[in-house]
Design brief:
The chain has about 170 residues and is α+β, with helices and mostly antiparallel strands. The protein has a single domain, classed as Nuclear Transport Factor 2, Chain: A (Roll). Strands 1, 2, 3, 4, 5, 6 and 7 form a 7-stranded mixed beta sheet that branches. Strand 4 and strand 5 form a beta hairpin.
């Protein structure tokens, strides 16, 4: 491998890792009650237009991009109490560092994820923990996911309790 090949590999790998973060940003920048459910603002830079997203491990099906986005945010990406907002009013999606294998203009990555959701009635929080298995293609706009499969390790809901005082002797701010 030449030095130019090594540099290109590093640039490709950094771009893929940065793109993986776009999934979480697409979710988190468009919270249920924000008035903006357009997850495609970020996901349009992450997925190919004809991506297939396999969510069968989560009890769903294989989706196209628009169909997946509407499942998350409701028809026409309205947000509010549509899609995930029906059950949850806030969430955080943490996408972990991936292992990446690059072969020319295709790549594969496996990245852990931790997705936390607050129930709309504030009675519980739900954790979805697992992996993304992504097949990438290099396009004229950069790397894009052409196929994504979710692997769930666990999906659990925990009741909430009143937030305890974190440090003794400090008044609430």
């Amino acid at each position: 491998m030449t030095n130019d090949d090594r540099v290109q590999y590093l640039l490709d790998r950094i771009e893929i890792q940065d793109k993986i973060a776009l999934y979480g940003l697409g979710q988190d920048l468009h919270q249920a009650d924000s008035g903006d459910g357009n997850v495609l603002a970020q996901w349009g830079e992450l997925f190919t237009a004809d991506v297939r997203i396999d969510a069968t491990a989560a009890g769903a099906k294989v989706f196209g991009l628009r169909e997946y986005a509407e499942m998350m945010r409701g028809k026409d990406l309205v947000g509010g109490t549509a899609g995930l907002g029906f059950t949850f009013n806030a969430w955080q999606h943490i996408e972990g560092h991936a292992t990446v294998t690059i072969d020319g203009d295709t790549a594969h990555s496996t990245a852990p994820h931790l997705h936390i959701h607050a129930s709309r009635d504030r009675s519980s929080n739900t954790f979805a923990v697992g992996y993304w298995h992504d097949d990438w293609v290099r396009t004229s706009e950069g790397w894009r996911i052409a196929f994504r499969r979710v692997e769930h390790l666990f999906f659990q809901t925990f009741p909430t309790v009143e937030t305890p005082q974190i440090v003794a002797g400090i008044d609430s701010v």
